[in-house]
Design goal:
Layout (H helix, E strand, L loop, with lengths): L11 H24 L2 E8 H13 L7 E3 L1 H15 L3 E12 L6 H7 L4 E8 L5 E2 L1 H14 L5 E5 L6 H9 L3 E7 L9 H6 L2 E5 L1 H4 L3 E3 L1 H7 L5 H5 L7 H19 L1 H5 L10 H15 L7 H18 L1
Parallel strand pairs: 1-3, 1-6, 3-4, 6-7, 7-8
Antiparallel strand pairs: 2-9, 4-5
Helix pairs in contact: 3-13, 5-6, 11-13, 11-14
Pfam families: NYN
Protein name: NYN domain-containing protein
């Protein structure tokens, strides 16, 4: 026979105190989560970008037949992502390309010098085909998602091999958004990739046109060894201070033509300009300088510096 006393009534005060303590802890956790900024990153397969934009705008995938304003395009990607994720911060843009023995070309060096851009190189085989790029994308995407370094990933590409990268990132809670280039008369992105991602966006011909320039005369006259550097050598290269002055001059002109309120709206985006505005600045500067600034990252930065310097002095 068990003579142990029956358990007494629960201590309601202690239970209430425990519930209150738990609620306070939950409130602190939720407050911390709500104030933690979202972070996004852009993962761009340069091989896909060159091939798709070259085919759409210049009618060819051969990189030697056209120039791609990679700096301007990357700025446009950053601007578009800022619009889509207004409450998120950019981690960086990853630019994946191929190179023989993984040695940067001059163009890749210029891209690598851009702020918030990381160039990652795979190998380039004898047939100019990229090798190892998909695995680099998967590694970066999965690692950042696993460590909760990003909440949203923008993937610019179309290869079916990227499906596993998307699945891995999603498994760690990241959302993956697929961006592509318009394909005339078909698709240039694998169906399984389109099915797997969280959202899709396609850039059309009007968006792509400003960033692709076909070089028919140079390419046809001098053959496959011709380059954009040969075309640029036709005229004297302006100095950084000259370009900076032109940037300030254009800003002053725009203030008169467009009004202070319009340009004041650009200030919160410093040091970035919206893609359309950046292209207008570039085209107008090239007209004044009578020299192409495409492919000259240092001069493009000098142009923007001059533009921003004048604007910030006025506000």
């Amino acid at each position: 026979m068990n003579d142990a006393p029956a358990p007494g009534p629960p201590d309601l005060a202690a239970v209430a105190a425990g519930i209150e303590q738990t609620n306070e802890l939950l409130q602190r956790v939720l407050a911390k989560v709500s104030t933690t900024p979202s972070i996004h990153a852009v993962f761009a397969d340069a091989g896909y970008v060159y091939a798709a934009m070259g085919r759409l705008v210049a009618g060819t995938e051969d990189r030697r037949a056209f120039d791609l304003d990679a700096e301007g395009l990357i700025e446009a990607f950053i601007d578009k992502a800022r619009t889509i994720f207004p409450d998120s911060r950019l981690l960086r843009v990853y630019w994946y390309d191929g190179a023989r023995r993984r040695l940067h070309t001059t163009e890749q060096q210029r891209i690598a010098e851009l702020p918030d851009v990381k160039v990652r190189l795979g190998n380039l085989n004898a047939n100019n085909q990229q090798k190892g790029v998909d695995s680099l994308i998967r590694t970066d995407l999965e690692t950042l998602a696993r460590h909760r370094a990003i909440s949203d990933a923008v993937l610019v590409g179309g290869d079916e091999d990227l499906v596993s990268a998307v699945e891995a990132a999603q498994g760690y809670g990241a959302r993956v958004h697929l961006w592509g280039i318009e394909a005339l008369g078909g698709r240039n992105q694998a169906d399984p990739l389109l099915w797997e991602v969280d959202s899709q966006r396609t850039f059309d011909l009007d968006f792509c046109k400003p960033y692709v320039t076909r070089r028919p005369l140079l390419y046809e006259a001098y053959g496959e060894g011709a380059s954009a550097a040969g075309a640029a050598a036709a005229g004297p290269r302006p100095g950084r201070e000259d370009v900076r002055f032109v940037g300030a001059r254009i800003a002053a002109q725009w203030l008169v033509e467009r009004g202070r309120e319009t340009l004041a709206e650009l200030l919160p985006g410093h040091p970035y300009l919206p893609g359309a505005t950046d292209q207008e600045l570039l085209v107008e500067a090239e007209g004044l300088l009578q020299h192409s600034l495409r492919g000259h990252a240092d001069l493009r930065r000098a142009l923007r510096d001059g533009f921003w310097d004048h604007l910030q002095a006025q506000f």
